[in-house]
Every structure is written in C-alpha cells, then in structure tokens.
Amino acid sequence: MCHIQELRHVKMCHIQELRHLKMCHIPELRHVKMCHIQEPRHVNMCHIQEACHVKMCHIQELRHVKMCHIQEPRHVKICHIQEPRHVKMCHIQK
C-alpha cells in the first residue's frame, strides 16, 4: 500500500497479488494513484505522505512484517520490523 499525500498531489498505491491482480485508480488533488497487488507469500504496503515530506512504508509478509515511517519536517525516520523470529525497531531523528 503506497500512499503519497502532498499539498498538490496525492498518490495512493496498493499492491495486492493473490493471482497477480492489479488495480490502479488515479484520483487526486491533482492526481492520485492507487495500485493493489496481493500475493499469498508477501504483501507490500507502502504509505508515503508528503504534505511536509512525510513517508510511511509498511511491508507485511507471511514471514516478516516491515513497517517504516519517515517523516521529514525535520528528517525523522522511524523503522519498525516485526517478524515471528525477531523484531527490530529503529528510530532515527535528525
């Protein structure tokens, strides 16, 4: 899932592939993109919000889940990785 929101344009991408199904929708403040792809083995979810350059990425899979949040009013990065065997949490603030 990719979401990009800006003051002028917003992009929303969803990737879902059960059997390689792709769905793209583009609406927007001027243009928004939405793609859906889901697979039985991995699901990618990316969220990017750029009102103030804020990026949020979420990656979920059957074996590992990754969650990355990047906010750039002042270049702040937050990464979350969750897996059944190990969990990682990284916070970077600049």
Give a verbal description of the structure.
The protein has 94 residues and is an all-beta fold. It has one domain. 0% of the residues lie in helices and 56% in strands. It contains no helices and 9 strands. The protein has strands spanning 2-6, 10-13, 23-25, 34-36, 42-50, 54-61, 65-71, 76-82, 87-93. Strands 2-1-5-6-7-8-9 form a 7-stranded mixed beta sheet, with no helix packed on it. The chain has a two-stranded antiparallel ribbon with strand order 3-4. A hairpin with a 4-residue loop joins strand 8 and strand 9. The radius of gyration is 14 Å and the shape is flat. It starts with a strand and ends with a strand.
Q: Strand arrangement, largest sheet?
A: 2-1-5-6-7-8-9
Beta-strand content? over 45%
Class computed from helices, strands and strand pairing:
mainly beta
Number of domains: 1
SS element count, helices: 0
Instruction: Based on Cα principal axes, name the global outline.
Output: flat
Task: Work out the radius of gyration.
Answer: 14 Å
First and last CA, distance: 26 Å
Largest sheet: 7 strands, mixed
Given as residue ranges, the uncertain stretches (5+ residues, pLDDT < 50) are: 1-94
Supply database-style keywords.
94 residues, mainly beta, 56% strand, flat, disordered N terminus
Topology:
Blueprint: E1 2-6, E2 10-13, E3 23-25, E4 34-36, E5 42-50, E6 54-61, E7 65-71, E8 76-82, E9 87-93
Parallel strand pairs: 1-5
Antiparallel strand pairs: 1-2, 3-4, 5-6, 6-7, 7-8, 8-9
